[in-house]
């Protein structure tokens, strides 16, 4: 997925290691609409503009990156990597680039995509 200048500018505010992890996560989400939300400091990935069409969000910070899942509370998580106690969303901390390529994370992303398809 080609990164637009707004997202590149947004990532300039973060350490290079964080930007690299964000780019790696983006590569897991080809063909999905990307929406930058600067006030919320996140990038949303969806198949439309409605909240219910969201698949996940990438949330960078100065210390790291989280991959948040809409309806993450409903996703299967046999590896136990989802965190959070919200009523709907859950997230996975991405401590390093190796975490991006883990089988557990790939399964969560696939499950989130399948859950979206089931919703619509």
CATH architecture: Alpha-Beta Complex
CA radius of gyration: 13 Å
Number of strands: 5
The first-level CATH class name:
Alpha Beta
Biggest pleated sheet:
5 strands, antiparallel
Which structural class is indicated by helix and strand composition?
alpha+beta
Relative strand content: 15-25%
The number of helical runs is 4
Helix content: 25-40%
Describe the protein in words:
The chain has 120 residues and is of the alpha+beta class. It has a single domain, classed as Aspartate Aminotransferase, domain 1, CATH 3.90.1150. 32% of the residues lie in helices and 22% in strands. It has four helices and five strands. The protein has helices at 5-11, 16-26, 97-100, 103-119; strands at residues 33-37, 42-46, 54-60, 65-69, 90-94. The chain has a five-stranded antiparallel β-sheet with strand order 1-2-3-4-5. The longest helix has 17 residues, at 103-119. The chain is globular, with a radius of gyration of 13 Å. The two termini are 24 Å apart. Residues 41-113 form the YdhG-like domain. It comes from Chitinophaga fulva. This is YdhG-like domain-containing protein.
Properties at a glance:
YdhG-like; alpha+beta; 120 residues; single chain; Aspartate Aminotransferase, domain 1; YdhG-like domain-containing protein; 5-stranded antiparallel sheet
Provide a concise account of the structure shown:
Helices cover 32% and strands 22% of the residues. It has helices at 5-11, 16-26, 97-100, 103-119, and strands at 33-37, 42-46, 54-60, 65-69, 90-94.
